[in-house]
Specification:
One of its GO terms (molecular function) is kinase activity. This is Kinase. Keywords: Kinase, Transferase. This protein is an alpha+beta fold. It folds into four domains: 94 residues, Phosphorylase Kinase, domain 1, CATH 3.30.200; 152 residues, Transferase(Phosphotransferase) domain 1 (Transferase(Phosphotransferase), domain 1, Orthogonal Bundle); 218 residues, no CATH class; 150 residues, Methanol Dehydrogenase, Chain A (8 Propeller). 17% of the residues lie in helices and 28% in strands. The chain is built from eleven helices and 34 strands. The protein has a six-stranded antiparallel β-sheet with strand order 1-2-3-4-6-5. Strands 9-10-11-12 form a four-stranded antiparallel β-sheet. Strands 16-17-18-19 form a four-stranded antiparallel β-sheet, with no helix packed on it. Helix 4 packs antiparallel against helix 7. About 7% of the residues have low confidence.
Amino acid sequence: MIPLHPHDPPHIGPFRLLGRLGEDTCTRSYLATSAEHPAVDLRVVRSNLASSPAFRSAFAHRVETAYDVRSNHAPALLDHDLEHAAPWAALQYPAGPTLASTVRAHGPLPASALHPLALATAQALADLHTGHRTHASLSPEGVVLPAHGAVLADPGFEWALTQIQEEPPHPDFAAPEDGAAPATDIHAWAATLCWAAGTTAHERDPDRLPLQLRDLIEACLQEDPAMRPAAADLVQMLGGPAMPTPWAPDLAATLARAQEPANRALQAGQHRPKKDRTAPIALTAGGLTLALIAGLGAVWLTRDDGLDAATDEFPSLITDAGCLDQDTQLASPPATVEDLGAVQLDFSPDGDVIAVETEEIGLSLWDWQDGGEIARVFGDEKGSGGPNFAPVGCLLTAVSVHEFPGDREYNTLNTLDVPSGEITEHHGPQSERALDELERPRRSIGSDFSPSGDQLLVVLEPDHSLENRLAAVGVIDMDTGELTHTLGGELGDLVHDAQFVDEERIITEGDLVLEVRSVENDEVEQTIRNATGKFTLSHDRTEVFFLSEGDLVHWDLESESEVSRYSVQEYYEKTEPEDEYGQWGEISVSPEGDLLHFWWYELPPPEEQGDVIEDDEVEEHSYLWDLETGENITENEGDDYLVRNIAFHPEQEVIAAINDERGIDLLDPDTLDVIDTLP
C-alpha cells in the first residue's frame, strides 16, 4: 500500500480512504473503511474513462452481475454506486500484496509456492465459470497473495475497457483468439503461472516450471481453445478442490512485511475519534507540527458566527470541540517568540484563540486572554494567505505546496481540524489530466465556509485555455469531503474569488462584476457592476462591501441597492495605469456592522525594488469608518495607526490589529486604545 496522493479525495460514498492499493487499466484501487464495512478494496473508475458512456455502461454490467459471484477464491461485491461522477465498486479486502508487486520486489516465486498458487487460482476460475461468468482479464496484477492461498483481486472488471478499445487489457497474457470465454481465462491462467515462475508464455523456460506443472501449462497454452482443459478439470488435475493452506515460512514472512503498512492504516482508520465524543483528544503542539505536511500556508477569508442556518450536528470533518476544549492544555511551542512577523489573523468561532499567519514562525495559535502561544501549527515556512476558521468547532484552512515536474509548484487547499489533528486536502474542479497527474493542477486561490460549516468553497485560479474552460469554484461537502457542485468557468465567465451568501447561494468576483449565483445550477440571480477589486460580506451575509474605482461601496443584497460609499481616492490614484504601485490588502467588517476597515499598501517603483522588498520600503495605509456616522476614524491619527489587517472578536470583546512592528495589538473596541500586545 502507498499513501494517498494529494489528488485523492478523503471520502468516496460512505467510505473513508486510507491509502492506495494500486491501479489497473480502468480503476484506481483504495484501501477504505466505513461503519458497515471495516475494510474494503474500493475500485474507482479513472477520470479519463468516467466520461465515456460506452465504458460506464460496460463497467456497470460487469459490476451488477458480480453480485452473483460465489467463491472462496474471489472477493465478494459489497457495495457500488454507478451513478457517481466516478463510478465505484467496493469489494471484500483480501489483505495481501499482489502477485505482480511481490515478484517485482523479490523475484520469481519459489517452486513450492507455484502449486498452491495454481490450485487456488484454478478454483477461482472454476467458480466463475460455474456461474456463467468469465474473468477475461487475468494477469499477475489481478492476483492477491494473503496469508493463506491466493485469490483473484476482482471478478474481472477490466474487461469493460474492451468496449472502447480494440486490444484486451493485458495483451501479454491474452489468448491468441482474444475475446471473453472460459478458454481465454485458461490461457491467461497458464501465462500468469509462467510469469510467477520467472518465464513467459511465449518463451517458456521449462527449467523454471515445476515438473508436475509443465504438461498442464503446455495444455492450457494450446493455440486451439478447444484443446485447453476446463477450469474444473484443472482443479481435479491439481488435486483439488482444497481449502487454502499457509505459504512456506520464507514467503509468508515476505508477504506479512508487505502487508504491514495496510494493517497499520486499517488499525488507525478503525480507531478514528468519533465526532460526538464528550472528551475530545488532546493534541500537543509538537503533534500538530508532525501532523502537517511541509510547506503549509493558509488561505483565509471571512467567517460567520451563530447564524440561524447553523445546525446542531457538526459536519463529519469537524470535531465537536473548541480550540481550548482539551483534557490537557496544549504543549508549549518549541521556542519563545521574539519577532512574530504577523501577516494575517483570525479569531476562532468561540473567540478563545487567535490564529496568526507569520513570516517568522509559520502559522501559530494564541490564547489572547493569557497572552500565550499555545501551538505552532507548522514549521518555519512563510504562509501564503491568512487564517480562516470554520464557523463551528476549531477547524481552519491552510495551503500545502507540491512540486510538479519542471520545477513548477502548485498549492492545494487543506482543512486542519485542530482537536483531532486530521488534515483533509480539497482539490476542487481540476481537469481529468491533472487528476491523472499528466499536467500541473491549478492553484487554490481562495476559500470560504457556508454559514453552517456544512460546505466549503474552493476557488482555483482561472482556466485560461480556450479548448476546455473549466469551472473555477468547487463546493465541498464537509461530511464526506466530496466535490458536490462546480461553478463558473464558461468562456467569458472568469471567477477570481467567491464567498457563501447562504447555504444555497454564493457571490463571485469576476472582471468588473460581482454575481450572486445558485449553488445548485450556477444560475446568476443578481449582478453588481463596476466592481474593480476586493470584496467582503457583512457577518450576517446580507450586505457586501466592494471596491469600485475611487470608492468602497456598501451594497444591500436583499434590496439590490447601494447603501453608501466611502472614498478611497488616494488608493485608486496609486492603481492607475501610469502609477500601478497601489495594492489592496483586506476589507473587514465588525460583527455588529458598525465598523468598516480597509487596508492597502504602496510598493516602491520597479527601478527602486531589489530582489526582496523590505518592510520599510512599503507605505501602508488604513481607513476605519464608523458606519453609523460615516466618519473616517483614522483621518486624524498618525501614519502608523491600524496600518495592517485587523480581526474583530466574534462577541466584540476586543479587536486584534497587526502593528507597525508586526506584533499584535489588542484594542478596546469602544475606545480603540491598546490594552495589550502579543507577543
